[in-house]
Amino acid sequence: FQPKLLAGKRVLMTAGPTFEALDPVRGLTNLSSGKMGFALARACAEAGAEVTLVSGPVSQPTPAGVTRVDVKSALQMREAVLNHVSTSDIFIGVAAVADYRPVETAADKIKKTGETLTVEFTRNPDILAEVAALPAAPFSVGFAAESRDLDNYAQGKLSAKKLKLVVGNLVQDGMGGDTNQVVLFDAAGRHPLPLASKDEVARGIVSHISKLLS
Ligand code: C5P
């Protein structure tokens, strides 16, 4: 009999993009299918964890046994995460959170009057950094999707956001598709995983998390 790797653990996760409304019909978002996050939620549940998945707008089915909380904006995502974080052992931020949101959301549809349109944006809170800095922070895991210089940026995030693990991938490897190639960065260094389906990569991440926890 092999005990499940995350039996008894409570996992809180974010996945998908956020959508920052500009007016009732438009907004700013990120390219994120949610596939990697949903695969990871499935792998955590299969490993015996109790999983709460806070998801931005995606068209992914909810994995069996996973509690899903749907949100749109980064501020809503932050609120949902903070509502659940005190009862979580592990937090995994997979969401592609928009870095900025419009300062104002127009109540009515913006009409095309001028030749140019200027919108002022303000920084969104960093949900992952905030969770990892809590006095009773869960074991916190982040993702780093970069278009270049992956090692530098991923290692930078590990220390700047005080994380236990960063899953790094070059965006051209993973975006939108069903396979991904990632490198895991932790205090001991870098651990590349082979190119595989997102489900297999997710199981590799779960197995690394369980090793770090024990
Ligand atoms: O700094 P960067 O946005 O590249 O960091 C990516 C990691 O931080 C991901 O794990 C992402 O889910 C998380 N993040 C967050 N809130 C933000 C921005 C990023 O939780 N506002």
Spans of at least 5 consecutive residues whose pLDDT stays below 50 are: none
CATH structural fold name: Rossmann fold
Please report which band the strand proportion falls in: under 5%, 5-15%, 15-25%, 25-35%, 35-45% or over 45%: 25-35%
CATH architecture: 3-Layer(aba) Sandwich
Shape: globular
Largest sheet: 8 strands, mixed
From the N-terminal CA to the C-terminal CA, the straight-line distance is 19 Å
Rg calc: 18 Å
Q: Total strand count, please?
A: 14
| Computed structural class | alpha/beta
Q: List ligands, each type once.
A: cytidine-5'-monophosphate
The top-level CATH class is: Alpha Beta
Number of helices: 6
Helix/strand order = EEEHEEHEEEHEHEHEEEEH
Provide the residue-averaged pLDDT.
95
Region (Phosphopantothenate--cysteine ligase): 11-214
Binding site for CTP: 99, 109, 125-128, 143, 157, 161
Cofactor: FMN; Mg(2+)
Catalytic activity: (R)-4'-phosphopantothenate + L-cysteine + CTP = N-[(R)-4-phosphopantothenoyl]-L-cysteine + CMP + diphosphate + H(+); N-[(R)-4-phosphopantothenoyl]-L-cysteine + H(+) = (R)-4'-phosphopantetheine + CO2
